[in-house]
Alanine racemase N-terminal domain-containing protein (Brevundimonas mediterranea), 195 residues
Amino acid sequence: MTLTAVSKTQPDEAIDAILATGQRVFGENRVQEAQARWTERLSGLDGLELRLIGPLQTNKAEDAVVLFDVIETLDREKLARALAEAAQKRGRSPRVLVQVNTGAEPQKAGVLPEAAAALIETARRTYGLTVEGLMCIPPADQEAEPHFALLRDMAERNGLSVLSMGMSGDYETAIRCGATHVRVGTALFGERNRP
Ligand SMILES: *Cc1c(COP(=O)(O)O)cnc(C)c1O
């Protein structure tokens, strides 16, 4: 089980303090903010793994493949194509998770559960991406457990081993449901500054 420390909007001192404990896996939800924070730090740090956990626009795909080791938010074919082209151009191929909108919430990113298998297949076969797992953010007003269970079953059916699920409020449930990566921000850093 891997702890992804969600460092979005946190001040530099807070990140340095977590780095000093040996934490090396970090999640960011905006490409530009992550570039500003990590580009310089990267050169001095061995074993750092950066994971993009926020929505990605196709026009940021190149910046994303240069900076991130894992992109957790693939949710449409157009983005798969943009990532494949960016990887080719920049000579760097992050691993990918498919984000599933398990609650089918209209305002939320993620592929609908019934369309996930096709997207996984297309991302692998047509675009040659290394799809290693699934990610979800359950609806805020529902119990998380059925969503985590759905994601786990989908991963099993599609032969995927990585499950990124669980945040500060529900990571224990997620671990019980088989999470391999939990994304924890406030429980680790304290409240975020509003961007
Ligand atoms: C901000 C964020 C988190 C961390 O949320 P906390 O409740 O602060 O732990 C996890 N996942 C995603 C996708 C996020 O945007």
Q: What stands out?
A: Residues 81 and 126 are 9 Å apart (CA to CA).
